[in-house]
Backbone:
């Protein structure tokens, strides 16, 4: 139980779960099965006991609790068809249970600011998942199961330890926002160019020495942040990114800009500060 002034705790507060035992059948779940129980003496009735009803809630939030694991038994109390959003940010989680796969109607998961090293395939099981925020963890890879999250529109894996992105990320045809900044990425998979809906790509503070060629296939890209890398030049084909409105290339080692940069007619903001440029095209 939290102290005075703490926000309600979904797991610790028994009134937040339907553990109510009542003589009114309306508040009771299914009876516990008789199997495995000791037989009663003749003429003695067994006390009324019912299963707790599964709680139909849409949003499950438990933040800033120093939570180290999720009790799967407690998750089983939730109605798997009702839960839509999970927020476990700012805890000390090192793993997530596979039982999250039960919640087939999830649209949003926030597990940022924990100590996760991996995201289970259960994260990508919902056909409706729209937003996943797993930033500020210790992720070293993303599983290939990510390709199943076909409805995913926003993915934030910033501030982790990712050295690569899986090829299956190219299957996310509805992804419009991807933030993989502050990782240790050296390159991007060719499959990234298949993200036809991607509009915003944040790759700042990684380890890129060359402009990733797969970015040039993102014809709907409007905002690109490659600041804080080790780029020395831009490819001539950068002029093909016709929809770019914001381009941040600051804090690199760029010595030369191609004249094709001038073909970006929709560009409104261009940041080239802290590079090694001596002339402009």
Residues:
């Amino acid at each position: 139980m939290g102290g005075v002034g703490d926000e309600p705790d979904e797991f610790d507060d028994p009134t937040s779960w339907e553990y109510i035992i009542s003589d009114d059948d309306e508040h009771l779940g299914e009876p516990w099965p008789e199997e495995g129980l000791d037989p009663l003496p003749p003429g003695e009735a067994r006390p009324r006991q019912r299963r707790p009803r599964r709680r139909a809630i849409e949003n499950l939030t438990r933040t800033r609790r120093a939570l180290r694991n999720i009790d799967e038994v407690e998750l089983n109390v939730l109605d798997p068809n009702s839960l839509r959003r999970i927020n476990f940010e700012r805890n000390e989680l090192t793993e997530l249970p596979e039982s999250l796969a039960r919640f087939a109607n999830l649209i949003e998961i926030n597990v940022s600011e924990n100590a996760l090293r991996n995201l289970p395939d259960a994260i990508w099981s919902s056909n409706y998942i729209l937003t996943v925020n797993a930033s500020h963890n210790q992720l070293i890879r993303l599983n290939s199961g990510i390709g199943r999250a076909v409805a995913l529109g926003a993915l934030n894996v910033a501030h982790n330890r990712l050295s690569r992105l899986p090829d299956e990320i190219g299957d996310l045809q509805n992804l419009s926002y991807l933030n993989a900044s502050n990782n240790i990425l050296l390159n991007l998979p060719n499959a990234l160019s298949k993200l036809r809906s991607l509009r915003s790509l944040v790759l700042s503070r990684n380890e890129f020495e060359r402009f990733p060629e797969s970015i040039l296939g993102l014809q709907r890209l409007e905002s690109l942040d490659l600041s804080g890398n080790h780029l020395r030049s831009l490819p001539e084909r950068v002029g093909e990114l016709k929809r770019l409105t914001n381009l941040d290339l600051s804090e690199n080692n760029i010595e030369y800009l191609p004249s094709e940069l001038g073909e970006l007619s929709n560009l409104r903001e261009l940041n080239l500060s802290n590079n090694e440029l001596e002339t402009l095209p």
Observations:
- The two ends are 64 Å apart (CA to CA).
- Confidence is low (pLDDT under 50) at residues 1-32.
